Structure formats: C-alpha cells, structure tokens
Amino acid sequence: MKKTTVLLALIISQFAIGQDSKNVADSQFKINFLTPGVEFETGISNNSTLNFALGTGIFLRKQNNQDTEFGVFPYLDGQYRYYYNFKRRLDKGKRTDRNSANYFSLSALAQSGKSIIGNVDFTEDYAAFVGPIWGMQRTYNSGFNLNLSAGVGYAWSENFDGEILPTVSFTLGWVLGGKK
C-alpha cells in the first residue's frame, strides 16, 4: 500500500510539472496592420492553441480588357493550431517565446460578400472556407509579429456549391502584452 501511494504521488507530480512546461503562450493579443485586424490566441495544451481573428482581406481581379477590380472585405477566422518545432528551434538557439514556431492548423473562415472599400461586391452575402493550413509565426523582442500560412480547403457560398481552393495569408503586426 505504501509503495502504491508513493508511486501514485510521483505520477501525479509529473502531471503537475508537465502543466508548468507549456511551450505555447497562455494568451496573446495581436494587432495586424498590413491588412488591418485583431487576433487573440490562447494556449489549450503544451503545443496547441486556438486563434481567433477579425480582420480584412484584399480582393484584386483583372479580366481581359476590363478595368482592375479591387475590394477590401471583412472576415472572421478561427483556427486550431498545433506547433510542432519548438524543440528543434530551441536546440538551434532560436526564439520560441510568443509562439515563434511552425504549425499545422485547421481553419474555418467566413467572409462578407460586401466590400467595405473598393468597387467589387459579390452577389452572395457571405463566403466560407474550411481546410488544413501550414504556417510559420515569428515574434521578435519588440513584439513585431509576422505570420505566413498556406493551405488547401473547401470554399463555398450561398450561390456557389463549392470547390477545393488554395489559400495564402501573410500578416504583419504587433503582439501586445507579456512574453509568455
């Protein structure tokens, strides 16, 4: 009985220690300025986060001899992110604070069909996208943040049955608040 109690205490203490060694930031608030928007990322396990973004996306189209069409559209994006290379970055002496690492994610995005700036409006009220994403996020000492991501997923709208489409995103901004 005494050995069982000691063994159980050791196992429980390992779980408690494991909780303190979380690789991802508990939470961070980001402001993006390249395409204006805000993001909130919260850690949910050692290497996983949920990231929520409210921002703007740019649409640019030039067809044949027509004028170039331009529009800025609001969107809402939610992602589950799994950061996979913290150890390798640490072994190479690179930064990992503020979730500076590469990740795989599952993204769900909804975008308005009405532009807030520009001469493009779609007949649909919304468009949506769901799919896997690969990305890399880096945050520097100053809080300057960059995020590059790409993936392929299923896109649809109220008048469009949908198809598999690529997605690419690049954001520049700042992380506000503490380092971890």
Task: Give an account of the 3D structure.
There is one protein chain. The chain is mainly β and 180 residues long. The protein has one domain (24-176): Porin, CATH 2.40.160. The protein has two helices and nine strands; from the N terminus they run H-E-E-E-E-H-E-E-E-E-E. It has an eight-stranded antiparallel barrel. A hairpin with a 4-residue loop joins strand 2 (37-43) and strand 3. The radius of gyration is 21 Å and the shape is elongated. Mean pLDDT is 88; it is low at 10-19.
Provide keyphrases for this structure:
mainly beta, Porin, 180 residues, DUF3575 domain-containing protein, signal, 9 strands
Brief account:
It comes from Spongiivirga citrea. With 180 residues, this protein is mainly beta.
